[in-house]
Amino acid sequence: MPQPDISPHQPVAAAFPNAKLLAQRAELEAMADLHPFQRPWYQPATFVDLPPERICPSMAA
Q1: CA-CA distances (angstroms) from residue 4 to 7, 13, 33?
Q2: In the prediction, which pLDDT does 53 show?
Q3: What whole-number percentage of the chain has pLDDT above 90?
Q4: How far is the CA of 34 from the CAs of 4, 6, 19, 55, 61, in angstroms?
Q5: Which 8-state DSSP code applies to residue 12?
Q6: pLDDT at 60 (0 to 100)
Q7: How far is CA 29 from its chain centroid?
Q8: Residue 3 has pLDDT above 70, yes or no
Q9: pTM of the model as a whole
Q10: How far apart are CA 28 and CA 34, in angstroms?
Q11: Cα–Cα distance between 13 and 19 in angstroms, integer?
């Protein structure tokens, strides 16, 4: 998907096409039910090209 700020006319090539996103499970759960004050900063288009199977939830240390 094109990125308006760095490549408005063509998709940006993946630097690490096989990478996985390691995220805290609690953070992923919080994103599913955002507080109204958090919504202005949430950027869902950022993750549109990220396949869900590449997200690896982890437990916080």
Answers
A1: 6, 14, 27
A2: 92
A3: 23
A4: 25, 28, 26, 19, 23
A5: P
A6: 65
A7: 13
A8: no
A9: 0.61
A10: 10
A11: 13
